[in-house]
């Protein structure tokens, strides 16, 4: 009778899982790293940073699969301001703000 009671308690503690304690370990993984155990395995296998938590936030499952849109901005200094356009200025005398010497990587 005691064994049956212990098994019943383990089943209740296991949540919806057949393995006792699995839900608690899974919860600890999610709280600690925002990834489930399966996410860690898939991330290791694919070499990407994948998480079901990202998917539930409306993002892609893997961070590297996120589309990165690079806008073509051409910014020029105007009178006391900087104005940006979607195409380059045809005036050859105007220098782009982001192409100054102090902004160049050395």
How would you describe what is shown here?
This protein is α+β, with helices and mostly antiparallel strands and 106 residues long. It folds into two domains: 64 residues, no CATH class; 30 residues, no CATH class. 37% of the residues lie in helices and 9% in strands. Strands 1-2 form a two-stranded antiparallel sheet. The chain starts with a helix and ends in a 21-residue tail after the last strand. The model has no long low-confidence stretch (mean pLDDT 79).
Features:
106 residues; alpha+beta; 2 domains; two-stranded antiparallel ribbon; 2 strands
List the helices and strands and how they pair.
Layout lengths: L1 H12 L8 H12 L3 H10 L5 H5 L17 E5 L2 E5 L21
Antiparallel strand pairs: 1-2
> What is the radius of gyration?
27 Å
Counted up, domains total: 2
Shape: rod-shaped
How many angstroms does the end-to-end distance come to? Answer: 76 Å
Number of strands: 2
Q: Quick summary of this structure?
A:
This protein is of the alpha+beta class and 106 residues long.
């Amino acid at each position: 009778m005691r064994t049956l009671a212990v098994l019943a308690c383990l089943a209740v503690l296991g949540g919806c899982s057949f393995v006792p304690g699995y839900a608690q370990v899974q919860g600890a993984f999610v709280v600690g790293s925002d990834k489930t155990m399966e996410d860690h395995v898939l991330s290791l296998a694919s070499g990407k940073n994948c998480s079901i938590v990202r998917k539930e936030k409306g993002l892609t499952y893997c961070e590297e699969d996120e589309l990165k849109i690079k806008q073509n901005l051409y910014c020029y200094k105007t009178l006391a301001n900087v104005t940006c356009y979607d195409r380059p200025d045809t005036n050859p005398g105007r220098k782009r703000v982001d192409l100054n010497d102090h902004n160049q990587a050395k």
